[in-house]
Amino acid sequence: MTDFSMLGLHPTLLKALTAQGFDTPTPIQARAIPELLEGRDLMGLAQTGTGKTAAFGLPLLHALMGLAKPSPKEVRALILAPTRELVNQIAQTLQGFTRGTHLKVVTVVGGASINAQTQKLARGTDILVATPGRLLDLLERRALSLGNTRHLVLDEADQMLDLGFIHALRKIARLLPQERQTMLFSATMPKQMAELAETYLDNPVRVQVAPPGKVADKITQSVHFVSQGDKAKLLERYLREHPEELALVFGRTKHGSEKLKKLLESWGFSAASIHGNKSQGQRERALESFRRGEVKVLVATDVAARGIDIPAVRHVYNYDLPNVPENYVHRIGRTARAGAEGRAMAFCAPAEIGELRAIEKNLRLSLPVAGGEAPAAEAPSPRGQHKGRPGGPGAKPGAKPNRRRPRPPRRAAA
């Protein structure tokens, strides 16, 4: 498929796509949309930044286009995503396609007023985009009904599993009709994902446009070996080389990310931070300032690894390497979006060598070294030399011989 008009979408949606400058579908869109328009269940595997939201969103809107307005508390289609940022990103994309239609998109996330969300749901909605935890809270209040929900989307399903949402998903699924269309999208395919697909999808078609875990081709990756205490000054050096370009910096902890943001501000950088200790309003304001370019550096934990779609991001710095190697792919996927180019730099302290090697194994490549030296322990042993006990085969020169105390003789049986 070389044109959206060939996919069979509603003319109103085609008009909205044209108005936004979209004319050629991405590979995941070209392969998924026709299957979804036929009502098939689908498991989509594609690297981040490839247009997955439109791949499931356009068929959803097409299916809902001819229906009357929903009844009070009714939800026609449910999209579940793991983070607030991703929920908002999905909703913004869909709202861009619904202009000029009667279709309504509502979001519910934690950290926002549950009473305001209850009021919105009271009028019914065509598409609800939600985080699982807040959705369960609202279901317990009987603020909505899923009895007529005929479409379910699990976006970034692997991260929902990582974040422990599997029990929430099971509770929610029991409230949905058996007769429904289910779509599962992800960038990676851990074993538990296959089990999830087998449980919730009915004879699904599998669409995979890139190997799970593959990063965008236009991202230039590298690693800089550095001591933990020197990371901040190294980051300063790189940031000053590109003062007008947007940079996203990933830390491991909430406290550490906030501390780094304040340090960068003290050095004169326009910086903001988003992490779990920030309110929903604070996170949204920080993201909007970053999107507009008022803030040049955004320091974040992995809550932002899949919820930021800002094409102007040129640099991603892994200030702390992630414990989960798949998260590296999602972090650096925040750059090189919409066909742009980007750069991803990993800062690796001696204690993080294990994380780096796990990332490289997942990527099936070795990251080019931009600076510093790998710890000596990483140097390969000479061929034929084996590690052993002192004084044994492969012992270092000068090592003490391996002398064991002789065992005492066994006593004869009485």
Can you characterise this structure?
By secondary structure, the protein is an alpha/beta fold. The chain folds into 2 domains: 4-208, Rossmann fold, CATH 3.40.50; 219-374, Rossmann fold, CATH 3.40.50.300. The chain contains 14 helices and 14 strands. It has helices at residues 11-19, 27-37, 52-64, 84-97, 114-122, 132-140, 157-162, 166-174, 191-200, 231-241, 254-266, 280-292, 325-332, 353-363; strands at residues 42-45, 75-80, 105-108, 125-130, 151-155, 181-186, 205-208, 219-225, 246-250, 271-274, 297-300, 313-318, 342-348, 369-371. The chain has a 7-stranded parallel beta sheet with strand order 3-4-2-5-6-1-7, sandwiched between helices. Strand 12 (313-318), helix 13 and strand 13 (342-348) form a beta-alpha-beta unit. The longest helix has 14 residues, at 84-97.
Number of discrete domains: 2
Report the end-to-end length measured between terminal Cα atoms: 89 Å
The largest beta-sheet arranges its strands as 3-4-2-5-6-1-7
Helix content: 25-40%
Shape: globular
Strand runs, count: 14
The helix count comes to: 14
Mean pLDDT: 86
For the sheet with most strands, the description reads: 7 strands, parallel
Q: If you compute it from the alpha carbons, what radius of gyration comes out, rounded to the nearest whole angstrom?
A: 25 Å
- In the CATH hierarchy, the architecture of the largest domain is 3-Layer(aba) Sandwich
Low-confidence stretches: 379-414
CATH homologous superfamily (4th level) name of the largest domain: P-loop containing nucleotide triphosphate hydrolases
What structural class do the secondary elements suggest?
alpha/beta
Q: What top-tier CATH class of the largest domain fits best?
A: Alpha Beta
